[in-house]
Each structure stands twice: as C-alpha cells, then as structure tokens.
Amino acid sequence: MYALRYLHYMGLLKQKSGFYNKYKTCFFEKNDYNVLFLGSSRVEMHYNTHLFDSLTGKNSFNLSLAGATPQVAFAALKAYLQNSKAPTYLIYEIDYHFLKYKSTEVKEFNNYFSFLSNKTLLCEFTKIDERMPHFYYNAYYSWPYTGLKNISTSLHGWLNIPNKTDSLYYKGYLKEVLRPQLNYVPIIRYHTFFNLNDRNYLDSIILLCKKNSTNISLISSPIFAGGEVDLVNKKQIITQLKNIALIHQITYSDLSSLPFCSDRSCFVDHYHLNYKGALKYSLILSRFFNNKIASRSLK
C or N: which end of the chain has fewer Cβ atoms within 10 Å? Predict the structure, then answer.
C-alpha cells in the first residue's frame, strides 16, 4: 500500500501544469515572486497574473486555495514561506460574504495529501482537521479518501497527458472559459459577520507579512451587483474591514462594485468572474496597484 501511494504521489508531482503543479510550486519549490495574490477560488479566477505582470512589470504568483478562509490562507502563506523568499507585496482577498463560516475543514483536502511533507502545511492544516497526520503517515487510512479524480490525475502525470484544465493555468491563475455565464437564479438575502477565529487569523496574516517586511493590502474583488443584491449588511461589514485595516495601518479597498459588476456575461455565479470579467478586473487592479500600492513606501 505504501509503495502504491508512493507511485500515486510521484504521478501527481510529475504534473507540469495545472493546480498540482501550482501546489508543487507553492509548497516544495524555492520562489522569488515579488507579488503574491492570496485567498480562495475567487483569487484563482479573478487575478490574471499574465496581464498583471505585463502591465506592472512585476513577477506575481496566484497563491489561492479552494474555499480558503483566513485560517486556510494563513496556512498556505506560512507553508509557502518555508522554502520561498517573502514577497515585496501581498494582496489578500477578503471574501466579505463568507466571513461568518469558521474553518472546520480543508476543502478538497485529498488534493493536499502529496504535499503534507511540507511540515508547516501539515502542522497548520492539523489545527483545522485532526486527521491530517493520519493522512500523512498512514497509507491505509489515506488511500480510501484519495478519490478516482485524484488517481486519474496521477495517471495523466505518469503518461505525460495533460488534463482538460491544465493549459488554462498560468502562475496559479485559472482562465475560466469552460463554465457558462451567470443565469438568472433565485436570490436569498442574508447577513454576514466576521467570526472570531478567522478574525484572529486575518491578524496573523497581517503580522506575518509585517514580520517579513511585506507590504500587505486587503482587497475585495468583484461580486455580482456589488454584493448588494445578496448581502443585507454590506455597509456595516465594509466599515468593520476598514477599521481592521486602520488598526494595522494598512489599506482595505472595496473593489467589489465596479461598473461591469451588473453584467452577467462577466460572471459564472454571483461570486466568481469568468475570463472576460477577470480581464476587466485585472486591468483595473493593475492600474490600482501602480497608482495606489506600489507608490506607497513600506510600513
């Protein structure tokens, strides 16, 4: 079983593109990117690293994990810094619609099995899911959780056959061209708030950046209709985020309500841009970065 798992992991690590190659870059390789984008799948789909680099002259990487709350994002950043140089700039995406959900699991956790030899990642993920050491040390325990998709990806690695989405990745960014544009869906309005655990981990991300002399900026990227269709207390949560930034003497910028945010052809759902939307946003973000972030001296 351990030999089988070894062969399985080797197939995953043979990936030369796609999200397994992305995680290999993040957690195993030595990197010297001067800009990191940190956050969830919204970061993965919204922050076009190719366009951003071409417009800013920077060398960026999209460090995004599916469903990443502040605690998961902190784990990813800390694990990245185990081998890599701290970036000059970090842009952390605040998913203000998602703040009330405490980190109780690592989403798609089986995708990280082959990277748990990064001891920082193992340690931080164990704080969220106590099964992580068992997944790492016990092949008989982890194998049933592996999943057919994961095994298929490993076989693709061994056979040097790319997966369907591999060519759509560039430096961690996913060019979303496969899903249809946003259709009309029922609206369920809701309130949100910042749960205490992830509020503390946002502080931890900020302090880790300051410790490494990284200029951190907090940003919320586009949401359909600026979030106001769904979120009842948007004004209050934005005010809270601005106050948190003020306490730490950093900036928070709400870019969730840009002019194109009512254009359904730019979204795949209420919270995720497609490739068309990401081009529009990344162009605006690049200008914002040049004018508002890179021009500021480090704290």
Answer: N
- Alpha-carbon distances of 152 from 13, 23, 42, 175, 288, rounded to whole Å: 13, 17, 26, 22, 41
Question: Which pair of tokens denotes residue 224?
Answer: 């359909």
Q: Is 264 left (phi over 0), alpha (psi -120 to 50) or beta?
A: alpha
DSSP character at residue 81: H
Residue 297 has pLDDT above 60, yes or no: no
Strand, coil or helix: 253? strand
CATH 3.40.50.300 for the 2-293 domain, yes or no: no
Mean pLDDT of 155-178: 94
- CB-CB neighbours of 245 under 10 Å: 19
Q: What residue ranges do the domains of the chain occupy?
A: 2-293
> Do β-strands 89-93 and 35-39 pair in parallel, antiparallel, or remain unpaired?
parallel
Which of 164, 170, 163, 123 has its CA nearest to residue 22?
170
- Where residue 185 falls among pLDDT bands split at 50, 70, 90? confident
The CA distance from 45 to 16, in Å, is: 20
Centroid of chain to Cα 254: 18
